Structures are given as structure tokens and as C-alpha cells.
């Protein structure tokens, strides 16, 4: 389903449900594709498609389409008259009634599972087997970002629900539910479900890039109960792996020029930190640094670029000495050198475990945004360019071409030799691949002082 969002604008995302609905009648003669279109609508909770699916289920007498229509009609934004129509069509068949009406009483084990999954808020917390996590998305958010997140959540095994700001609050809010919403919707949810844990209500805006998407997915995962977790194994490393996981945080091999360029700085401050024993390289002959050293040096540079006060060099050895944390959703630091992690339940000092009070904490992810310090300009990390990610576990952490194990430096070296012809001669599989920004990053790395 990732193809759905490729090249879409916000306006396209807003009109996508209706576009899918209007194309479905054209697929009437192709049952497989018609059912697939209905499945996409169900998995992304595109309730706007419900009238189209209902008409097709009526005219084709297709039980799969009827069940899809019933599932879509479980969203309170669907008009009551359409829900009544579906209930009339399914008759006494409980597997069709359950997604539409939470008052339906399940009898068989299959019906109970369907009921618990459809209406988590009507269930007790002692369900005998794990259910899929339910993530409710506030439709007051940006339509394109919401769609991207919905597709990623579906890939991770979650049931996606879309809550329209003006609609009723349904019985979705149970033990395996997480809500991403505005403060106004948060108030509405808590008014209907006062015992719903506030820790599972995430009020942050939806992310724009893959790195932030991965962070949000891990934050959702952190507040889900043990049996109901997301699956990350289907995602690219930029999303699936936590940069603060010890195996990732301590990976990577960079020379001094690379670290300086990726930190928006010069070699000399990095050399001084090494000579003062504040930053210890992986190896000395030649000098090579790990990803955590890059994070430490870049964060120190970032803090100096935004803070009017003096930033202690203790930030550098504190971050470089951090061993990583597989449960960390966010990593933070103070200008005095304290390192903190957020495992989904707020900041805690990595050394003492204490909750900070009154400290000004910088989220290290902020240091991954582009910034300028002195004459240097730090590129975004870990997405250095639109087609150029960086990940410590891929090619020792050097920027590379997205979807390929080809470094930016290699492409730039070939381009310097004989332009695009040399690149395609060495990598013919790149004939229809966009890599201009990767070549540009490669040139910057090769010319870094």
C-alpha cells in the first residue's frame, strides 16, 4: 500500500477515499481487484467509501463486500441510515452485525474475537488471548501525514481507526488502544472514557519524515501493553531500528572529516576533544569514530549554536559514554552534561533513574535537524537528502543511496571521473533511479576539510 502515498499532495490525500469509492464500480467485473479495493478501505478505515461498498455489495450479493461495508459502517462518521441498511442486509448473521452494532452479543469463539477487536472499550482487561493493537487517528490532522502513518501502522499489524472531530466517541478505547489526537479530541475521549490512561493519548503533531515516523511508531509501541505490540520487521532500517538501541548507537565507522562535515563543524574542535581525552575514537591508526561519537560532537555543536550561555564540554563525554537503550523512544541532554532517556513515560536520568525537575532538556533529535554554527552548516540526519539516508548499521554509517547499498562517496567519485555515464556503467540498475542529491552529498563528503 506504500504506492498509495507515492507523490501524493495533501489535496490528493484528502480526496483519496472518494477516488477509491468512485473507481470501485469500474471494477465490478474484476472480483479480485474489487475486493482488494474494499480491503484497502477497511484497513485504513476509509469510512467515506462505505456507501460505494454498500451499493456494490447489494448489486453483486458478494458476502465479502457486505462484511467490508459492515466494518466501515462501524465508524460513527457513517450516517445512521446506512448503518441501519447494512444491519438489515446482514439480518441475524452476527459476524456482520458485530462490526456495526456493539450491542450484538457474540456467542462463538470467533464472534467473541471479532467483538473484542471491533469494540475494545466494551471489553474487560482479562481477554484470554492477545488482540491487535488499535490506533485511533484524529482526522483533524494533516491528511497526507495521517495517511502515511495509517499505512505504516497497518504494516505493523495495528488496526487503524479514524475519528472525525464532530462524530460520536465509539467504544474503541480499551486496553490495547492508543490515540493520536488534538487537545480538543483528548478532552472528548476522556469525557466519554474517564478511566482511559492519559499515557496512551499522544497529542504530538504527525511527523513529516521517516525518522520522525519511526520515533512516533516506537512511542506508540512503548505505551502498548506487553502482548499487543507493533511489528517492525517489515520496515526499512530507517524506521525499524531505534538509533538509540545499543547495537545501532555504538555502530558505524567514520573518519574525522566525515564527523566534522556531518556535524557542521571543522576538524580542529574534534581533534581538541580527542587530545583532552573528552572523546575517544574507535581506533587511532587511522583515527575512526563510532556513530555515538558523531552524535556527541554534533549535539555539542548544536547546543552551542542555539544557546546564549556557555555549553559545557561535559556534554560530549556524557553522550559518548552512553551505552544506548533499546527501550528509549527519545534521548535528551542538558547543557551541563546530564543524559536522559524517555521510554514512553517521560524523561529519566540514565545514571540515577531520577525524574528531572526544572531542567532545560534538549531532545537530541532536535540536533539532527539542519543547523548552522559559525561558518559550518550541518545537514539533516539521518535523512541527509531526499534519497540519501544514513544509518549506522548500513555501510558502516556512511550516507548512501536509498534502497541500495551504494555510498554517496562512491557515486560522487564515479561522477567526477566520467559523469552519469560512469555511474550507470558501474550500476546499471540505477537507470531509472533518482540519485542526484546522493551524488551531491558524496561531493560534499569528498571535499570536506
Detailed description of the structure:
This protein has helices at residues 10-23, 31-43, 50-60, 63-72, 80-90, 94-97, 109-118, 143-155, 183-192, 210-223, 237-240, 246-249, 256-262, 267-275, 291-306, 315-320, 408-426, 436-447; strands at residues 134-138, 159-163, 177-180, 201-202, 283-284, 287-288, 330-333, 339-342, 347-349, 362-363, 371-373, 376-378, 383-385, 388-389. The two termini are 43 Å apart. A hairpin with a 2-residue loop joins strand 5 (283-284) and strand 6 (287-288). The protein has 449 residues and is of the alpha/beta class. It has 18 helices and 14 strands. The longest helix is centred in the last third of the chain and has 19 residues, at 408-426. The strands form five sheets. Strands 2-1-3-4 form a four-stranded parallel β-sheet, covered by helices on one side. A four-stranded antiparallel β-sheet has the order 9-8-7-10.
Give the key terms.
single chain, about 450 residues, four-stranded parallel β-sheet, about 10% strand
**Uncertain spans:** none
Q: How many strand units?
A: 14
Biggest sheet overview: 4 strands, parallel
Average pLDDT, all residues: 90
Amino acid at each position: 500500500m506504500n504506492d498509495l502515498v507515492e507523490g501524493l499532495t495533501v489535496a490528493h490525500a484528502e480526496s483519496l477515499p472518494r477516488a477509491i469509492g468512485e473507481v470501485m464500480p469500474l471494477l465490478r467485473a474484476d472480483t479480485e481487484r474489487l475486493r482488494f479495493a474494499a480491503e484497502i478501505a477497511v484497513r485504513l478505515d476509509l469510512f467515506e467509501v462505505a456507501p460505494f461498498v454498500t451499493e456494490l455489495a447489494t448489486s453483486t450479493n458478494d458476502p465479502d463486500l457486505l462484511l467490508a461495508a459492515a466494518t466501515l459502517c462501524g465508524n460513527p462518521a457513517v450516517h445512521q441510515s446506512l448503518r441501519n441498511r447494512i444491519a438489515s442486509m446482514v439480518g441475524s448473521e452476527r459476524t456482520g452485525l458485530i462490526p456495526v452494532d456493539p450491542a450484538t452479543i457474540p456467542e462463538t469463539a470467533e464472534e467473541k474475537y471479532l467483538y473484542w477487536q471491533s469494540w475494545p472499550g466494551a471489553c474487560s482487561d482479562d481477554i484470554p488471548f492477545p488482540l491487535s493493537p488499535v490506533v485511533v487517528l484524529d482526522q483533524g490532522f494533516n491528511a497526507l501525514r495521517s495517511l502515511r502513518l495509517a499505512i505504516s501502522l497497518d504494516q505493523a499489524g495495528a488496526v487503524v481507526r479514524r475519528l472525525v472531530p464532530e462524530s460520536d466517541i465509539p467504544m474503541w478505547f480499551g486496553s490495547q488502544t492508543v490515540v493520536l489526537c488534538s487537545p480538543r479530541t483528548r478532552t472528548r475521549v476522556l469525557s466519554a472514557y474517564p478511566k482511559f490512561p492519559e499515557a496512551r493519548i499522544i497529542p504530538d503533531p504527525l511527523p513529516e519524515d521517516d525518522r520522525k515516523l519511526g520515533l512516533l511508531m516506537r512511542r506508540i509501541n512503548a505505551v502498548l501493553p506487553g502482548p499487543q505490540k507493533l511489528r517492525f520487521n517489515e520496515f526499512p532500517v530507517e524506521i525499524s531500528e531505534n538509533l538509540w538501541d545499543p547495537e545501532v548507537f555504538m555502530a558505524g565507522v567514520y573518519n574525522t572529516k566525515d564527523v566534522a562535515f556531518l556535524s557542521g563543524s571543522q576538524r580542529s574542535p574534534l581533534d581538541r576533544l580527542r587530545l583532552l581525552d573528552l572523546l575517544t575514537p574507535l581506533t587511532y591508526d587511522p583515527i575512526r569514530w563510532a556513530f555515538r561519537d558523531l552524535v556527541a560532537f554534533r549535539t555539542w555543536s548544536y547546543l552551542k549554536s542555539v544557546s546564549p550561555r556557555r555549553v559545557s564540554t561535559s556534554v560530549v563525554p556524557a553522550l559518548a559514554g552512553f551505552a544506548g537503550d533499546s527501550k528509549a523512544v527519545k534521548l535528551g541532554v542538558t547543557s551541563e552534561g546530564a543524559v536522559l532517556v524517555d521510554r514512553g513515560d517521560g524523561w529519566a536520568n540514565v545514571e540515577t533513574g531520577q525524574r528531572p525537575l526544572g531542567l532545560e532538556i534538549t531532545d537530541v533529535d532536535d540536533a539532527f535537524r539542519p543547523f548552522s554554527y559559525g561558518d559550518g552548516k550541518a545537514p539533516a540526519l539521518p535523512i541527509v537528502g531526499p534519497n540519501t539516508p544514513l544509518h549506522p548499521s548500513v555501510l558502516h554509517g556512511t550516507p548512501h543511496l536509498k534502497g541500495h547499498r551504494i555510498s554517496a562517496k562512491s557515486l560522487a567519485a564515479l561522477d567526477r571521473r566520467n559523469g552519469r555515464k560512469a555511474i550507470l556503467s558501474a550500476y546499471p540498475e540505477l537507470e531509472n533511479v533518482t540519485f542526484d542529491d546522493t551524488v551531491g552529498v558524496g561531493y560534499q563528503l569528498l571535499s570536506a576539510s
